[in-house]
Structure formats: C-alpha cells, structure tokens
Design brief:
heterodimer, A: alpha+beta, Beta-Lactamase, 5-stranded antiparallel β-sheet, 24 helices, 27 strands, about 30% strand, B: alpha/beta, Rossmann fold, 5-stranded parallel β-sheet, globular, HATPase_C_sf (chain A), phosphoprotein (chain A)
Chain lengths: ~725, ~130
C-alpha cells in the first residue's frame, strides 16, 4: 500500500519528519524525529503531537492549527523560544498540509529541526562582533565584489547599502604610509597567500581618522588564490591610549635626559640594580647595564659619605621614611660631584619592601652657588666689620639696622646708641635736603647709588665732614630692601684745606701790605727826605743870616713831617702786630655809647643827630681797642665831612647775615666820588676833600684794623647825598667749629 | 730869556714849592710863577683865565701825588677844557717817588722824557727852561 511505503520511506529519512492527521495524531515519523524530539519513547503512532511534545510553544500551536484549517504551509528558518523553565530552543521548521485523493485536508507534514546550538553560536559571534567592534569582509574573486558586514560598514561610517570594491576599500586607508602598506600586504596575499595582521589609520566616509586592526587570510587551491577574507577591528581607543603612553614615556625620557636626572631601580629580592644611561653618565661611567650591582653605586660614593648612604637606604627599606639623601660621588677620574637621590619603595602583598625606584641628579652647581653665596656674605660682613670706612645698613625709613665700629668712632656714638638712631638725626640740617633729594632718585629707581659730600654732627656737637656713598640693595623684582652707606671721614683733609686756604689768604694779604708799604716808603718817606736834602743844600750855600733862619724853620717843618709819617707807619705796624691779640666778646652798644660821649663836644658844635639802632645785648668778637678806634674814626669822619647844606645825621644799625654781623654807619654828608676814588679810598695819605684836617690816614688804619680781626669794610656813597660804611664781623655762633 | 711867558707850579708840598721858586728866582727874566696846591685848584684857575680871555700858562711843573686831584687826573681834565685854538703847554712831571710804576705811567702820557725826580734844583730848571 502506498501509505505503508511512505511510512517506511519516512522512517529512514535523514531529517526529523512527521506526518500528522487532522487530529494532530502521528501517522508516521522518522527515527531522527524520535531521537531528536522524543527520546525514550518507543512508538508515537496514534499519539497526539501536543501530548508527545507538551512544551510546544503557543506560537507554533497556532501555526499548526492555522495550517490544518486553511491547508497552507509555513516555513521558518529559525525561531527562538524560551520555555517557562528558562531553557532556550531555536527551532527551524517547514509545515505543509497534505490532501487525500478527494482533495480533503488529511493532515500535516512537519519537518522540524533543533538549530539551538548553531543559532546560539551565531548569536554569540554577532554579539562579539558588536562588542569588539570587529567587522568581517570577503572578496568574491569571480565578481571582484567585496562583502562587508554591518560592523565593517559602521567602522567605515558608510550607509547600509554601500557597495564596496577592492579599490574603494583601499582608498579608505590614510594616504601615505598607511595606504602603501595595505596595498603591499594585499598584493603579497594575492601572489603567494601570505596572511596579514597590521594596525593602520583609516579615514572614514565622514572624515574621521581612526586606528584599525586589519587581518586578512587567503584560501589557495592549486597554487591559485580563490578566496580572501578577514576581519576588521576598530582599535582607535586602545591605540590612542597606547600612543599617549608612548608619548608620555618619551617626554619623560626627554625631560630626565635634559635635566640630567638619572632613573634607577633596585630589586631587593633578586639584588639586581637597573640604571638608565643618564645614571652612568652622572657617575662618570661607561654605559654598561650588564655589569651593574648595588656595589657599583656604593663604590662610586665618597668614602666619608658611604655610611650615611647605607643608613638612608636601610631607613627606606624598613619603611621609616622615603629615600632622600645628599652625598658626594667620586668619578673614576677623581672629580667629586654632589648628588641628590630620592626614591620610593614598592611593597609586596605582605607589606615587605621589595623594590626601590628613584631618581638621582647632580647638585654640584647648586652646592657651589650656595657656597659662593655664603663666602660672598661672609666676606661682605668681614669687610663691613673691619673696614676703615664707616659703613651702615640703613632701613628705608632712615634708621640704622647695622653699623660698623669705624662709623661709631667717627661720630662718637656707641654701636648701641647709633642703631637706635636714624641718619636724619646725625645729618647737618643744611645738607639734609640735598641728601633726601638724591635718596628719592634711588628709591624711584632713577639711579642705583649716589655719592655726596656732606656734614654730620658728632655726638659732642662738632661737624664731621664725610663723603657718603649710598647704594640701594634690591630684591629680584627691583624693590629696594635697604641701603648700604659708606662714609669716609674727610674732616682732617677739610681742616687742612681750610688751614691752607687761610694761610694762602694771609700770605697774599701780607704780600699786598708789603707792596703797600713799599709804596708808602717810596712816596711818603721819600718826599720828606727829598725836602730835607733840598733844604740842607740851600742852607749850605746861603750867606744871609735871615734867609738861613727861614730855611732852618722849614727844615724843622720837614723833619716834623718825616717824624709824623714814621709815627703813622708805626701805627700800621702796630695793627699788624696787634692782630695776634685775643679777640673778646664786646658789647657793641656800650662801645658806641662810649664813643658818642667822647665826641659829645663835636656833636654839639655840628648840631648833629646821632641815631643808634643796635640791640642792647648784641656782642661781637673783636679786639676792643681796634673796635674803639674804628668806630671813633668812622663817626668823626661822618661829622667832619658833613654837608654845610643840611643838619648832620648819623645812623648806626646792625644786621645779622648768614655768617656775619654787619654794622652800618650812614651819614648825610658830602659823599665821595667813588667812580674816581674807589681804589684809593682806603689807601694811605689819600684825601678827597679840601679839608685842612684831612690827613689821608684814618681809613687806611681802619681798614688794617678791621682786617686784622678777620673782618672787612665796604663803602657806598653818592656825592652830595652821603656815605654808608659797612663793617663785617665774623659770626660763628651758628655752629661750633 | 726864556720862551715861556707864563709859568705855573702845581704842588701841595709847601717846601717843594719854596725850593722851586728859589730856583726860578736865580734865573734872569723868568716871570713870577702861578702856584696851585692841587689839580682841582689849577683847573678852576685855568677855567677863569679862559672865561676872562687872559693868557694861559705855557709851562707847567706838575706834582704827581696830591690830595683831591693828583697830577694825572689834572692832565685829563686840562685837556678837556683847553681851547682848541690855543697851543698846549709844556708839562714836566715831578715826584718824590722812585718807584718804576710812576715812570711807566708817564710813558702812557708820552711824558717819560719830561719826568723830574725831587728835589728839583736850579740847574735842572735852567736846562729845561732856557734854550
């Protein structure tokens, strides 16, 4: 029978096949069906499909019912089902309704396959592909078409319907070494089947540059390439990290190289030492990493520093502190270099130190600089303390921060006293402004230092002449921290200079007087001697007694004249000698009053007015007799040469100038024509008025007397108006010198 | 007989004037000299002569050192007032000084040859006054 033959045919089918009737009862089935879906059951014939396979999912039950009802067929390439117990099954089926001879639906033919394993593998692969961003590709050599998986497309950032060819694929690689490399690799693969595995840069359709790992394999048949396929992986992030790391390492290497920092590592377990090339250079050794041990380092250390070095290392190993040591290294050529080593320890899981990693660098220059700085400071303070020049460190407000003994000695203060004071307190008031002016220029950065000749006040009040050199000490930003002042005491030089100037003045004065004297002798004495010689000449020849008597009278007059002149000269000489007399404090008012009394008769005769505008207590340094003589001469001149046209008025006043006391004698007399007589007015035997009393000796003596007291006399006069004589006396009251 | 009709002595030293007068008296036909005590007096005297139209001196013995106005100042003043149509007088400077400075000064007035050192005796006067 036909049915039987079909049944036996089905039984041996290599697939799981079953024939069901309209009630879904098994009519026939293959052994494979029994093995695959109904393990352990002997016969299924007549049994209901759903009884035999109770787990059949609802979806499949519906399909079965539908196919039976409508006589349709249903094909499924694979569908995943998850059962209530959580198990997973992939099923693939083909369901057909079958009809009997009369065309009625007789039942269903079911071809069922459990594809769970295959499907699961596929799914994992797809997942892996997505997670690892691994795409696949294959070249169909018959069409030259290239097949890309979704991920490959994604990596290239192209749309889903993008159709690649070999050329377009190659052009995605970055122009230059990347494209050249992939071209070379593919050519090799075509030629002899060499597979490849490389990392290159790709430029995506959107223009992004990414790193990819490209793998390719070739299938050869009869020495001919038949298939090329491979994978394609996005490794951009990984590569970037890798490259970044490489960059950092290189930069570190460059930095350590440039800074001369050597890197070392000491493994305490294996007792091995690792140095980089800079370490060798720092110790003056040949680069020889194979012949290196802890001893190499130890032997390079200066013998005196070895013990300390070992202690530092021991401390680091015991974990007391991180390594930070300074020591001297001795180079093979004997050079000594100062080093600093710092290191950190690495511990194992038990907390035991197993490794020390550290850096080592040369600090010789730093050490030398420090030493030189100290030397420089020491030598500055040494110079400061022992200098013969007065020195001080002066704060911005002018107070003394530090002074040396020389400065104390020249100003008379102790060091403690002076450091409590400021430069303002010891500066002469007249020099203060100048000093501050220069100091301001230094503060404002106009100049770094200044030099000034100035006067200081000694503790006991006298003046100290000094040359000040003040230099600003600034910080790195140019801000003034303090000043260094150097004061050279030039008082002895100044005193000598003053003495010399005085001597020169005295000498030239004396010369002038000598000339004056020669003049007096040549003119005045000579005129008397010529008269005497003439008269005696006449006398010898004269016979007449009466005439002889007359000549003798004249001879007597001439000898009297000679006598008078000699007396005057003697008076002048006395003034010179008298200059050695001591000057005293003389009250000017009293002196003038006294003279006024002595001249009271003359004043009355002339009906003169006498005005005295002199402070009662004004005293001047003078030789009393000279002052009397000068005042008497000036007042009596004023009376003698009064104008007959007006009532005589004599005004005497005093004025205090910077370093002199000036006394003025003003009259309203006849006046003197100074344009003609300026030079002669104080000369000997100069008279300017037709006055019988005029001898031409008074002003000459007055001038000599005032000059003998280191003073001077000046005159202003207008003919017909009057004269003013001014006496200048030295005034040292301002400063004690 | 002298060429000089009017002689003048300007000197403040009375004894010197006495000596000069005595010397002049010893010579015959020499007019009595005019005497002035200083330069200013002489200038005033000359001004008066010019005003009155009387004859001015043709010979002057002039002392250098005098009060009020000395010899050199006198020459300057005299040159200033002297009428242009009148002949300048012959001047002899006299001084008791033996200092070289005075001779130098005389040179500036072209009078270094007319320079007499006191005392001036009759012999000297005869030499300079008589031809």
């Amino acid at each position: 029978m036909q049915t039987l033959s079909i049944t036996s045919l089905i039984k041996d089918s290599p697939s799981a096949v079953a024939i069901l009737n309209t009630e879904l009862r098994f009519v026939a089935y293959s052994r494979v069906w029994l093995d695959d879906f109904c393990k352990g059951q002997s016969s299924l014939t007549g049994k209901n499909y759903l009884d035999v396979l109770p787990r059949t999912p609802e979806a499949l039950r519906s399909i079965l019912k539908e196919c039976l009802a409508n006589g349709t067929k249903n094909i499924c390439e694979g569908r995943k089902f998850i059962y209530p117990d959580g198990t997973l099954q992939w099923l693939k089926w083909k369901i057909n309704a079958w009809t009997d001879d009369s065309g009625e639906i007789g039942g269903l033919i079911i071809l069922l396959e459990d594809v769970t394993d295959t499907k699961r593998r596929e799914e994992i692969l797809a997942k892996a592909e997505r997670v690892g961003r691994i795409g696949g590709w294959e070249i169909d050599l018959s069409t030259n078409q290239l097949f890309w998986t979704d991920i490959t497309r994604e990596i290239h950032e192209v749309p889903d319907d993008f159709q690649p060819y070999i050329e377009t694929a190659i052009n995605f690689y970055k122009e230059g070494i990347h494209r050249e490399e992939i071209t070379r690799l593919i050519s090799n693969a075509f030629a002899d089947g060499t597979p490849w595995d490389t990392e290159l840069i790709l430029v995506t359709a959107k223009g992004n540059e990414i790193w990819v790992r490209a793998k390719g394999e070739v299938e050869m048949a009869n020495g001919k390439c038949v298939r090329i396929f491979g994978t394609f992986q996005d490794i951009n992030n990984k590569k970037k990290v890798e490259l970044g790391f490489k960059k950092v390492s290189e930069r570190l290497a460059l930095a350590t190289q440039g800074a001369g920092v050597g890197i070392w590592e000491y493994d305490l377990v294996s007792k091995t030492m690792v140095w980089d090339n800079i370490m060798f250079r720092l110790f003056g050794l040949e680069y020889n990493p194979n012949d290196l041990s802890y001893e190499t380092w130890q032997n390079s250390i200066h013998p005196d520093d070895r013990k300390d070095g070992d202690i530092e290392i021991a401390k680091a190993i015991s974990g007391t502190k991180n390594l930070d040591a300074q020591y001297r290294a001795v180079w093979p050529n004997g050079d000594i270099r100062h080093m600093r080593a710092i290191g950190v320890t690495q511990k194992d899981s038990n907390g035991k130190v197993v490794k020390i990693v550290g850096a080592n660098y040369d600090i010789t220059e730093l050490k030398n600089t420090q030493m030189r700085l100290k030397e420089s400071e020491d030598s500055f303070y040494g110079a400061f303390e022992h200098s013969n020049t007065g020195m001080a460190i002066v704060a911005l407000d002018g107070s003394f921060e530090k002074v040396n003994q020389s400065l104390c000695d020249c100003l008379g203060y102790t060091m403690d006293e002076l450091t409590e004071m400021s430069f303002q307190e010891i500066t002469h008031p007249d020099d203060f402004k100048n000093d501050v002016h220069l100091l301001k220029q230094v503060v404002n950065g106009l100049k770094p230092s200044y030099k000034l000749e100035k006067r200081y006040i000694h503790k006991n009040g006298h003046i100290v002449y000094g040359i000040l050199t003040a230099t600003a000490v600034t910080d790195m930003n140019g801000k003034v921290l303090h000043y260094v002042s150097q004061v050279t005491d030039i008082s002895p030089q100044i005193r000598t200079e003053k003495k010399l100037t005085r001597l020169v003045n005295i000498t030239s004065e004396q010369n002038e007087r000598l000339l004056n004297f020669a003049h007096i002798v040549s003119h005045n004495l000579r005129s008397h001697s010529s008269n005497l010689s003439m008269l005696t000449n006449f006398l010898i020849k004269e016979k007449s007694d009466e005439e002889r008597k007359n000549l003798l009278t004249m001879l007597r007059g001439a000898s009297d004249g000679l006598n008078e002149t000699i007396m005057h000269l003697n008076e002048v000489v006395q003034v010179k000698i008298g200059a050695h007399e001591k000057k005293k404090d003389v009250n000017l008012y009293d002196t003038l009053k006294n003279v006024e009394n002595n001249l009271s008769q003359l004043i009355q005769e002339k009906n003169a007015t006498f005005e005295l505008k002199i402070p009662r207590n004004l005293t001047i340094k003078a030789i009393p007799a000279y002052l009397d003589s000068i005042v008497l001469n000036l007042i009596s001149n004023g009376l003698k040469y009064s104008s007959p046209k007006r009532k005589p008025l004599i005004q005497i006043s005093a004025e205090l100038a910077h370093d002199a006391i000036i006394i003025s004698f003003k009259d309203n007399g006849m006046g003197i024509d100074l344009t003609r007589h300026q030079k002669k007015i104080f000369g000997m035997y100069k008279t300017f008025h037709r006055n019988k009393d005029a001898k031409g000796i008074g002003l000459f003596i007055t001038k000599n007397q005032i000059e003998a007291m280191n003073g001077k006399i000046e005159v202003e006069s207008t003919v017909g108006v009057g004269s003013t004589f001014k006496l200048y006396f030295e005034n040292h009251e301002h400063y004690k010198n | 007989m002298s060429n000089y009709k009017k002689i003048c002595i300007i000197d403040d030293d009375a004894i010197a004037v006495f000596g000069l007068k005595r010397g002049l008296q010893s010579m015959k036909s020499i007019p009595e000299p005019l005497i002035y005590e200083n330069g200013l007096q002489a200038i005033e005297g000359f001004k008066k002569m010019i005003e009155e139209g009387t004859e001015l001196p043709s010979f002057i013995l002039l002392d250098i050192n005098m009060p009020v106005m000395g010899g050199w100042d006198f020459i300057s003043q005299m040159n200033a007032i002297w009428p242009k149509d009148k002949e300048k007088p012959t001047i002899y400077m006299m001084t008791s000084s033996i200092s070289d400075q005075d001779v130098e000064k005389a040179r500036t007035f072209n009078l270094e040859k007319n320079y007499l050192i006191k005392p001036v005796f009759a012999e000297t006067l005869v030499r300079i006054l008589l031809p």
